[in-house]
């Protein structure tokens, strides 16, 4: 009996002792401040009035044009872009369109913003380009055009959202660079300037210097997020998207869109449709009308992979921003399922989540069939708002985990999508805490048009 008491006492002591142990490892849950303005990743290039914040995006519908953007800090400087197939023989030249500046709030004046579209490029070809003529530092970069639209072309996309400019953001970008990709589908929320007093637009400048190391060399396809709205009537700023619209052009006209916030591009085997959660999308609105027409233009025999980018997720099991995307889902999900879209990418929620193929299209307000159901024509929904911005991680997942949620984790990271051919694409998610080559989640997707298996 005494022995039993001793054993029980020992067990209790052990239990009490172990309950007090705190694991030394903690995933960063709190927001961290942005890197300071004097951080090395924000350092301007040397040389008076040197071009900086260089970034490129596809300049037409199919990839035979590239739009090159940069700013000059002190003077408009040269509008010239020289480019060619060899870094030492830049045989062609074009000029940026009207140089622009904008003001924001009580004191911000932007640098001189240049946009130049070079066109008539060959597919799948490396071009070199140079900027900053007339000053001491002419800066040189290069990019590769995508393969021609075609069912068995290959392309590897980086998938990044809600990046910001913290040390976590820097990890995310570094890991993406190490894993490699041909282009980035950026799912909105770039620099988070609006989290600072008066939407401190110096953060638009520092962010653009930070990401130049990637986006000067490969096109990033831009989706607008809520942090791009910059609606601030208290400081006299009543035009939504003012900094974003001035700085980040999109090729919207080439896909018959009327605004830069919804448009499409074809890149090799992919038809990428970008939607705006923060522009009107109700019935009869310009975005609604455009999407209806655009889905009819998709030709899966040429671009088998139909990918939709939208900032606010339609399926999300996190408390954070829960159901914010619901009205857009109700508006567009039927079309997306009927179109057999492969993938819907969203950001906004600062965590990672991948869904099974589900739809709610059976539901109407009267029949009560409100549970998402497996649907082989439905896309996989991926939330990739885990770029690492200053607002921190969204860790409050709803419990129990709904059946349609295949994988979810509150960590910062990025994903890649490698389209192999018309039938198969390989998806990976990487969390920043791991080494760059560690895969934390992965899936093979089969094409919804060419091989609509009951997978995912
Ligand atoms: Fe957002």
From TrEMBL:
Output the Gene Ontology terms for molecular function: acid phosphatase activity; metal ion binding
Pfam families listed in its UniProt record: Metallophos, Metallophos_C, Pur_ac_phosph_N
The record's section on InterPro entries has: Calcineurin-like_PHP, Metallo-depent_PP-like, MPP_PAP, PAPs-like, PAPs_C, PAPs_N, Purple_acid_Pase-like_N
Q: What is its EC number?
A: 3.1.3.2
Question: Which reactions is this enzyme annotated as catalysing?
Answer: a phosphate monoester + H2O = an alcohol + phosphate
Similarity comment: Belongs to the metallophosphoesterase superfamily. Purple acid phosphatase family.
Purple acid phosphatase N-terminal domain location: 51-145
Query: SUPFAM superfamilies from the entry?
Result: Metallo-dependent phosphatases, Purple acid phosphatase, N-terminal domain
Which Gene Ontology BP annotations are present? cellular response to phosphate starvation
**Which organism is the protein's source?**
Brachypodium distachyon (Purple false brome)
Q: Where is the Calcineurin-like phosphoesterase domain?
A: 156-352
Q: Which UniProt keywords apply?
A: Glycoprotein, Hydrolase, Iron, Metal-binding, Signal, Zinc
Q: Does the keyword Phosphoprotein apply?
A: no
| Protein known as | Purple acid phosphatase
